[in-house]
TrEMBL record:
One of its GO terms (biological process) is fatty acid metabolic process. Residues 1-28 form the signal peptide. Gene3D superfamilies: Penicillin V Acylase, Chain A (3.60.60.10). This is N-acylethanolamine-hydrolyzing acid amidase. Its EC number is 3.5.1.60. Pathway: Lipid metabolism; fatty acid metabolism. GO terms for molecular function: fatty acid amide hydrolase activity; N-(long-chain-acyl)ethanolamine deacylase activity. It comes from Capsaspora owczarzaki (strain ATCC 30864). Belongs to the acid ceramidase family.
């Protein structure tokens, strides 16, 4: 039940205190931990798929909404536009996402506008490091840190591994946040893996909402999930799809496959592909690292420089799930804003592993 006046302020304060206690309790342990694993049953009506997750994490979801209202200039544009989209959600967001977001809003006891905001903000405001590398035996491995500065404390307690199933079989899986129906980190077993990194180009949140109002583009994380859910998808067809779909915001899409050489970084603006950067082991380009800058103009990014040095020191024969995790655990690639680290390989589904990061090494 949503109330007004003083009761709203008191309820919001109590909610924030609850989530801070949860966060501090986890932080006090100062140990990395694996997130909860959940199943989303795609055979259920979309509105029911996330009910159990959103109900369990409702306090954290509500606290995130309240934090966002303080963090973003909500009242002049952002929240009113999100409310417009929420009020007519079927005309702005495709199925099944519109109904899934309805279900999240009801279970978490937030408005549809707030649920819309939560379902687009993570994929356009996160700072990340993604790596695709070819091991000495030709195996492709893909790993990422997801960094999210101001919200990292809350998000660490909302990180989940989701296995999307139909008829009891897993079609694809990934790492996401409770209440968030899209995918930022995902794998279609034996086909491809994918991550996205923010490409910061201007007042990105307001522009993204305006793009949604024009009904010409889709949220980035929905695009990722659409390809992961496609039964006929291949590595190359996924690359083409991610290169051509009109988006609400610029982005880097990092895609890995199962065969030698299958690794790319796609640099996108909202409408067009700007660059595609592929693995080329024959030319000694056996890995790609993407943070949050164009590969032809990286500037001075200490995360990028540190990752390059670590990978060069290892070489192709030194790369494996453990060593690439260590690369992503080296400061400042791993930093105070890092929420989680995922290691995965489409050709080795058993390698999929996520750790929520609390043990942050000091950076000299």
């Amino acid at each position: 039940m949503r109330q007004s006046g003083l009761n709203v302020s008191v309820a919001a304060l109590l909610l924030l205190q609850l989530v801070l206690l949860l966060t501090v309790g986890a932080l006090a342990q100062q140990h990395d931990f694996p997130p909860e694993q959940v199943i989303v049953n795609l055979d259920l009506p979309p509105k029911q798929r996330w009910t159990q997750v959103a109900t369990k994490y409702s306090a954290q979801i509500q606290a995130t909404v309240n934090f966002l209202k303080q963090l973003i200039p909500m009242h002049d544009l952002v929240l009113p536009v999100a409310n417009v989209i929420g009020a007519d959600i079927d005309n702005y967001l495709p199925m099944p996402y519109s109904d899934e977001i309805r279900g999240v809003a009801e279970a978490a006891r937030i408005t549809l506008g707030e649920a819309v905001l939560c379902n687009i903000i993570y994929d356009i405001t996160s700072f990340c490091t993604s790596i695709v590398a070819q091991m000495g035996n030709g195996t492709i491995i893909h790993a990422r840190n997801l960094d999210y500065g101001p919200l990292q404390g809350v998000l660490r307690n909302m990180t989940i591994e989701v296995f999307f199933q139909t008829n009891g079989s897993t079609l694809f899986y990934g790492t996401t946040f409770a209440g968030y129906t899209g995918i930022l980190t995902g794998v279609r077993p034996n086909v491809f893996g994918v991550t996205i990194n923010e490409r910061d180009m201007g007042n990105i949140l307001e522009n993204a909402l305006q793009a949604l109002l024009k009904k010409e583009a889709v949220p980035l994380s929905f695009m990722l999930r659409d390809a992961l859910a496609n039964d006929t998808v291949t590595f190359e067809s996924a690359v083409r799809f991610y290169s051509r779909t009109q988006l609400i915001a610029p982005v880097y899409v990092i895609v890995s496959g199962t065969q030698p050489g299958e690794g790319v970084v796609i640099t996108r603006d909202r409408q067009y592909i700007l660059d595609i950067w592929r693995l080329d082991p024959a030319a000694q380009s056996w890995y790609v690292v993407e943070t949050n800058s164009d590969n032809w103009n990286p500037g001075q990014d200490i995360r990028l420089e540190t990752a390059h040095k670590s990978l060069d020191a290892l070489g192709p024969n030194g790369i494996n799930p453990y060593s690439i995790y260590q690369v992503l655990s080296t400061a400042p690639v791993l930093n105070n804003g890092t929420v989680y680290t995922t290691v995965m390989s489409a050709s080795h589904p058993e390698w999929f592993s996520t750790m929520v990061r609390l043990d942050i090494p000091p950076y000299p």
